[in-house]
């Protein structure tokens, strides 16, 4: 019994890593054995060589840095405006009523279809990439902030008023913290779409200052497939690191939300 | 402070438009410095009554006025009363000490002072050492004691207690009842105490208001003339037994009626 438990515990820790190693190994063998041309499917070894070369000559970090900067700028813009309007909607019926048809109309619109318009208005520079990602991330953030405020337990608000809080104290000490777990969930969704939109915008706009999206497109156009894969690996790791960091921050800022 | 409840009727409207009459023309004078217990079957409107008295909910019709007979005021939330909620309503994002100190914080009391006072209250409900726990890390009984401390710290003249000891184990309940009796003897607050327990109602109260099944009306008001200070040992005395028997017969009829009604309602739905 005990032995079984420890075996399954060990398996739980080791198997996920093992599955990745096995997958990469199988990929290497498959490519080597079938002599697949590297422009179709480069081997993991070739990809890691390309990745190391990109790290060595600095192309990875300049491009990754440019992309990260745009992601954080777009996300910050969306977070500030989204939380602000979400709180406003949650706390004022009038604002919610006015905002409702706008959100209902704009939310289902695929924001990526605004790219041509934004390029006409803003050109293909930094502002267009930041604005398109911020517009996209704004919606999940504003919606979940609004929902978060609305689902706050009314009993808690009544308890606060009964204990002597005035209306604005109750908003600040009950409604706001009560909405925080939902707001954080919205911020995570928002971060996810920000990453997607920044990279997509870089692919379409191109840029003198680089970025992972334009790196991908350039490598793709000249069939440097191992560079494409290396960029994808870097993007995957970047996305995972951002998401993990965000979860860690949420936990630090709202420790009560995990265990309720 | 006297509390005068006059012809209070409460009709709740649910989302689907159906109406529930929770209280029907309820009138009672709660006298200053008295401990009144409210006993009645589930769903008869006890919590509703306590919330209307506290100004937390507004009655559909009828009035609640509070204060000396020559100068009564309409009840209002955050006024002279404070509620210990049946569902506790603790703030999940605040630790025990910050929950207990909440009222003082809103009143602008300095951090050092409110923590000092909160620590005393937390110790008096037996939760020393749990100051920095979150409510989710406590048992149901511990949460009830936090809710009690959070209300007591404000030292308001009227205490509204909605089944505050319902989730406590038998032993802790006795300790908390004796603590409440001690506080009552010292401060002579006006207390309205909702309970399901006949023993508890007689042990604590100067009067026991037995309510009918929904819609809640007063079935009978039982004066309890046991001497104070009270103690749990009194439960064995013949006087206590006589009061218990009387209350038990009243409440048994009402509970049977309430259950029959619920079954009928369920049958009608099928
Ligand atoms: N906020 C509300 N909205 C709608 N209906 C309500 C509300 N509060 C109570 N009710 C209804 O009013 C009736 C009385 O409820 P109340 O909570 O006062 O009963 P209670 O006597 O406290 O019951 P219990 O002993 O189970 O706590 C119930 O039928 C309940 O469904
Ligand atoms: Mg109740």
Brief summary of the model shown:
Chain A is mainly α.
Tell me the layout of helices and strands.
The complex is a heterodimer of chains A (260) and B (270).
Chain A lengths: L1 H33 L9 H13 L2 H33 L1 H14 L8 H8 L3 H25 L3 H9 L4 H39 L6 H10 L3 H29 L7
Chain B lengths: L2 E11 L5 E12 L4 E5 L6 H8 L7 E6 L6 E2 L6 E4 L11 H5 L1 H5 L4 H14 L15 H13 L5 E5 L7 H18 L2 E6 L2 H7 L2 E5 L6 E6 L14 H32 L1
Parallel strand pairs in B: 3-8, 3-9, 6-7, 7-8
Antiparallel strand pairs in B: 1-2, 1-4, 4-5, 9-10
Helix pairs in contact in B: 4-5, 7-8
The structure holds adenosine-5'-triphosphate (ATP) and magnesium ion (MG).
Could you characterize what this model shows?
The complex is a heterodimer of chains A (260) and B (270). Chain A has one domain: Orthogonal Bundle (MetI-like fold). Chain A is 82% helix and 0% strand. Chain A has 10 helices and no strands. Chain A starts with a helix and ends in a 7-residue tail after the last helix. The mean pLDDT of chain A is 91. With 270 residues, chain B is an alpha/beta fold. Chain B has a domain at 92-155. In chain B, strands 6-7-8-3-9-10 form a 6-stranded mixed beta sheet, with helices on both faces. Chain B has a 4-stranded antiparallel beta sheet with strand order 2-1-4-5, with helices on one face. In chain B, helix 4 (111-124) packs across helix 5 and helix 7 packs across helix 8. Chain B is globular, with a radius of gyration of 19 Å. Classes of the chains: A mainly alpha (260), B alpha/beta (270). Bound molecules: adenosine-5'-triphosphate and magnesium ion (MG).
């Amino acid at each position: 019994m005990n032995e079984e438990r420890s075996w399954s515990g060990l398996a739980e820790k080791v198997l996920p890593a093992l599955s990745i190693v096995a997958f990469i190994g199988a990929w290497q063998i498959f490519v080597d054995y079938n002599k697949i041309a590297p422009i179709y499917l480069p081997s993991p070894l070739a990809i890691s060589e390309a990745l190391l070369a990109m790290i060595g000559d600095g192309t990875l970090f300049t491009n990754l840095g440019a992309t990260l900067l745009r992601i954080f700028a777009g996300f910050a813009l969306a977070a500030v405006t989204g939380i602000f309007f979400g709180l406003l909607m949650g706390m004022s019926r009038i604002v919610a009523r006015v905002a409702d048809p706008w959100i209902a109309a704009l939310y289902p619109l695929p924001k990526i279809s605004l790219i041509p318009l934004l390029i006409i208005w803003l050109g293909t520079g930094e502002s267009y990439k930041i604005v398109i990602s911020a517009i996209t991330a704004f919606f999940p953030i504003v919606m979940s902030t609004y929902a978060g405020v609305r689902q706050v337990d009314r009993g808690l608000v009544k308890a606060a008023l009964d204990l002597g809080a005035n209306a604005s104290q109750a908003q600040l000490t009950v409604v706001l913290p009560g909405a925080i777990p939902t707001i954080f969930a919205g911020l995570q969704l928002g971060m996810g779409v920000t990453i997607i939109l920044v990279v997509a915008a870089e692919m379409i706009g191109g840029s003198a200052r680089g970025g992972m999206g334009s790196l991908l497109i350039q490598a793709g156009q000249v069939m440097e497939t191992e560079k494409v894969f290396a960029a994808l690996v870097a993007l995957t790791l970047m996305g995972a690191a951002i998401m993990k960091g965000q979860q860690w921050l949420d936990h630090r800022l709202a420790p009560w939300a995990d265990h309720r | 402070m006297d509390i005068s409840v006059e012809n209070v009727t409460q009709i709740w409207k649910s989302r689907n438009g159906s109406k529930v009459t929770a209280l029907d023309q309820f009138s009672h004078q709660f006298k200053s410095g008295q401990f009144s217990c409210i006993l009645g079957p589930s769903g008869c409107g006890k919590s509703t009554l306590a919330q209307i008295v506290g100004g937390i909910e507004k009655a559909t019709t009828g009035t609640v006025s509070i204060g000396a007979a020559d100068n009564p005021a309409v009840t209002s939330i955050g006024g002279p009363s404070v509620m210990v909620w049946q569902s506790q309503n603790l703030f999940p994002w605040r630790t025990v000490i910050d929950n207990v100190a909440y009222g003082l914080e809103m009143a602008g009391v300095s951090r050092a002072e409110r923590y000092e006072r909160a620590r005393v209250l937390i110790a008096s409900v037996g939760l020393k050492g749990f100051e920095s726990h979150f409510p989710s890390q406590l048992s149901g009984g511990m949460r009830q004691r936090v809710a009690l401390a959070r209300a007591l710290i404000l030292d308001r003249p009227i205490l509204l207690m909605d089944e505050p000891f319902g989730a406590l184990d038998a032993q802790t309940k006795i300790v908390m009842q004796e603590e409440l009796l001690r506080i009552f003897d010292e401060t002579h607050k006006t207390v309205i105490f909702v309970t399901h327990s006949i023993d508890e109602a007689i042990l604590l109260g100067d009067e026991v208001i037995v309510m009918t099944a929904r819609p809640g009306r007063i079935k009978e008001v039982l004066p309890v003339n046991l001497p104070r200070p009270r103690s749990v040992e009194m439960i064995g005395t013949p006087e206590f037994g006589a009061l218990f028997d009387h209350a038990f017969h009243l409440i048994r009829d009402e509970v049977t009626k309430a259950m029959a009604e619920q079954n009928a309602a369920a049958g009608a739905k099928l």
